[in-house]
Amino acid sequence: MKPVRVPLSLQQAVIRTLRQKLTQASHFLQQRFPEPYITYQQRGTIAGSARLQDWEIRLNPVLLIENQQVFIDEVIPHELAHLLAYHQFGHVAPHGKEWRFIMETIFEIPVNRTHQFPVHSVRSKTFTYYCRCQQHELTLRQHNKVLRRKNCYVCRQCGEKLTLLEST
Known about the structure:
It is built from four helices and six strands, in the order αβββααββαβ. With 168 residues, the protein is of the alpha+beta class. Helix 2 (61-89) packs across helix 3. It is elongated.
């Protein structure tokens, strides 16, 4: 997969927001925090992720380019709050009270556990499986596990093993 290049102006906007939120946290908590390492390597439908031990934030370049300022305003504080919660409180629930405290009290941002960005451009190919009561869409990863006999998926409704719908 060819890497997506994020325009320099967007990278600069990411860093500006990151530094502004770090300053807010530093003032509120009365301590300085190192600037996290930012990468643009997050794939799939995930907007961003925080790698706690590495003090790193991974961002989805496609969703960043498609959603720009809204992405920056929502995802940067969200992922930074994960890092700060880990730094201040250790291992805690990913979206627990410590994370919510940082989002609501320090950053003054409403909490959302997941983004609402359109993901049609980053969604991978799906495969149609069926059981006796309905059709199911499995991801490429799930489909490959079935082919390698590593996994067997079962319908939660009827309990029947899922079978690939062969295309004709």
